[in-house]
Amino acid sequence: MADRYVLINDHVRRNALEAVRSAPAGFTVAVSEPKRSNDQSAKFHAICSDIANSPASVWAGKKRNADEWKVLLVSAHTKATAGEVEFVPGLEGEFVNIRESTSRMSVGRAASLITYAIAFCDMNGVVLKETAKHGFIHEAANDRRSA
User: Does 67 share its domain with 106?
Assistant: First the structure.
């Protein structure tokens, strides 16, 4: 199992440096910004569920489920933030959106996606019941959406 250090103070930084010094030849080291948190992932999935369970769930003539809303929101967010959206022919001739992976998003990028998704909900009258139920938004903010 690999050691992982979150550089929160000088003591941890020294431990990480010692691990690098004592690592055998051929080991690798990566320093990166933190990935999105489990709370961010859970919040985004709750938002997708709220959209799927709302009157706004119909897209392109069909009621969409939470997984489909995840794809729609990630693709739209990528486009809205000047990212590259690419459609390629799939292995069976279908078209596939080669999109950004939410599991590889930084904390900041995931926060931007969540903000985008909440704005979509605001503009489309989606009440964030599941999102509030799980404690991801304040009830007062959600009350404005249901008013």
Answer: yes
Note whether 15 and 62 are same-domain residues: no
Q: Verify that 48 and 102 share a domain, yes or no.
A: yes
Asked whether residue 58 falls in the same domain as residue 14, the answer is no
Task: Please state at what angle helix 107-123 crosses helix 38-52, rounded to 10 degrees.
Answer: 20
98 CB burial (10 A radius; 0-12, 13-18, 19+): exposed
Cβ atoms of residues 53 and 40 within 8 Å: no
Q: What integer best gives the mean pLDDT of the chain?
A: 91
Q: Which helix (H) or strand (E) is 116 found in, with range?
A: helix 107-123
- Total number of domains constituting the chain: 2
What mean pLDDT do residues 47-75 have?
Answer: 97
For residues 54 and 100, membership in a common domain is answered with: yes
Query: Token pair for residue 40?
Result: 């961010």
Average the pLDDT over 51-55 and give the result: 97
Residue 124 φ/ψ, nearest 5 degrees = -115, 15
Structural domain for 97, as ranges: 34-146
What mean pLDDT is predicted for residues 112-139? 92
CA dist 25 → 14, 21, 22, 32, 78 (Å) = 20, 10, 9, 21, 39
